[in-house]
Every structure is written in structure tokens, then in C-alpha cells.
Design brief:
Layout lengths: L7 E6 L4 H9 L4 E5 L7 H13 L3 E5 L5 H9 L4 E4 L5 H9 L30 E6 L2 H5 L1 H4 L7 E4 L1 H7 L9 H16 L4 E4 L3 H10 L3 E6 H19 L1
Parallel strand pairs: 1-2, 1-8, 2-3, 3-4, 4-5, 5-6, 6-7, 7-8
Helix pairs in contact: 1-2
């Protein structure tokens, strides 16, 4: 993923399908978040979707289930271009996340040149994976100033849904408490020159967040978009009955 690009557009993925991945990639998205935390991926389906991303020149970024060294390592060995880390609570968690993407002696990642990422032994080098960390706990918000000093983090993503739960307004995306927290995160990221991403569902939200300095836009989740598409197709006919 070209982290120097002014603006990036992607989508969350929870349905394993190389066909859907290829269709999305052909649509011009910059990246797809392949979700191993909430999605139904296993390593076999993940590998197929990573291949489909490559076929369409779309970056495959895997959201792992947490700070599991072996899981992160296997996703990268499959050829994922980056990792999204969820449920991080404090500075130490975020620092560990960055270390899981680097080889020793700097980091914790194991090295095996015979995996897919290295062409099964035919390539000696691979580009450094993108590190995206999610701010989705109030503890992380409180530790944000220190977290933003970590050079190994390429993007901060605002986990608005989990934050809404922590704030006691589950799913109320227009709640003033949640909006205030999101704005605070974006403001601090901007001050630290750290690129920040959010989820959007319409052009109005895009315009609003772009004005605030957001440069990574996630266009909801493929399952929601598919459901919404078919709802819009069938509802006019149901109303006529």
C-alpha cells in the first residue's frame, strides 16, 4: 500500500470469497481489510483472498484476532501486505503490535524464506508490512499521546463501534459522546502527523471527515453493502403488494 498516497479507500471483509475479492478489487479500491477477528476466514480462504487482491492490484490487509505472534506471522507468510491490530489497550500493547511485524533483533517476527510471501524460496526480500492499529478502547484513548510516538505505526484507525460500546451508547453513531471522542482522536493524530482512518457510509460523512484531516476511508462492510443493495432492489416491489 502506498502510504504516501494522499487518500486511500477500502472496505471491511467478513465473507471469505475470492470472487467477491476480485470484484471489489476490480472496482478500484486501494485495500481490503480481511477480517479474522469477526469474519469467518481460515488460513485456506485467507490465502485465496490474498491471491485475488494481488490479481487486481488491491492491497490485502488482515485484521488478526489480537497480539498472537504465530497468527500474525502466518498471515504475513501468506503474503498479506499489512496487519490491522484490534483490542489494544495501552502503550505496551501498541508497541508489541509494531514488534510483531519486524524480524529480530528489532522485532518478534520469525523468518522463513520458503513461504508464499518469499516466493517459496525464490525471493530474498519482501516489503515491510503496513501496521494499522485500532483505537477502540477508552484506555487506548487515554494513552494516545504516548502511542502516537511509536514510529512503527503507519495508520491509526478509529474503532467507532467498540468505542460506542465502551461509552455506553452501543451502535449510536451520532451520540455526542462518541463524536467528541472520534474528533479528539483525529485531532491528536493530525497534530502528530499520523495518518488516520474511519468508516463512512455516505458522501456526507466522507466530506465531513476529509475536512477534519482523515485520509483513510473504509466504505462500510461488504455484508452490509450486499444486504443494502438487495433491500433496495426488493423493497419497491414489496410495497406494491
Amino acid at each position: 500500500m502506498n502510504i504516501n498516497k494522499n487518500e486511500l479507500h477500502g472496505i471491511w471483509r467478513i465473507i471469505p470469497s475470492s470472487t467477491i475479492t476480485e470484484i471489489i478489487g476490480n472496482s478500484g479500491f486501494d485495500f481490503q481489510f480481511l477480517d479474522c477477528e469477526h469474519g469467518s476466514y481460515d488460513y485456506a480462504t485467507l490465502a485465496n483472498d490474498i491471491r485475488a487482491c494481488e490479481l487486481t492490484n488491491c492491497n490485502s490487509i488482515v485484521r488478526v484476532s489480537g497480539l498472537n505472534k504465530v497468527e500474525v506471522q502466518r498471515c504475513l507468510d501468506l503474503g498479506a501486505k499489512g496487519i490491522v491490530f484490534p483490542q489494544l489497550c495501552n502503550f505496551d500493547d501498541f508497541k508489541t503490535a509494531t514488534m510483531l511485524l519486524d524480524y529480530a533483533p528489532v522485532g518478534l517476527r520469525g523468518y522463513n524464506p520458503f513461504v508464499r510471501a518469499f516466493g517459496y524460496g525464490n525471493s530474498k526480500s519482501v516489503s515491510k508490512p503496513i501496521c494499522i492499529t485500532i483505537i477502540e478502547t477508552l484506555d487506548a484513548v487515554n494513552d494516545l499521546d504516548k502511542i502516537l510516538t511509536l514510529k512503527g505505526i503507519d495508520y491509526i484507525y478509529v474503532g467507532s463501534y467498540d468505542l460506542s460500546a465502551q461509552l455506553g451508547c452501543v451502535g449510536q453513531m451520532d451520540n455526542p459522546k462518541l463524536i467528541s471522542i472520534i474528533d479528539l482522536i483525529i485531532e491528536k493524530c493530525n497534530l502528530a502527523s499520523k495518518p488516520v482512518g474511519v468508516m463512512i457510509n455516505n458522501k456526507s460523512q466522507y466530506d465531513n471527515y476529509k475536512l477534519k484531516g482523515v485520509t483513510m476511508f473504509v466504505h462500510s462492510v461488504e455484508s452490509y453493502n450486499i444486504q443494502h443493495l438487495f433491500d433496495n432492489i426488493i423493497i419497491p416491489y414489496k410495497k406494491k403488494q
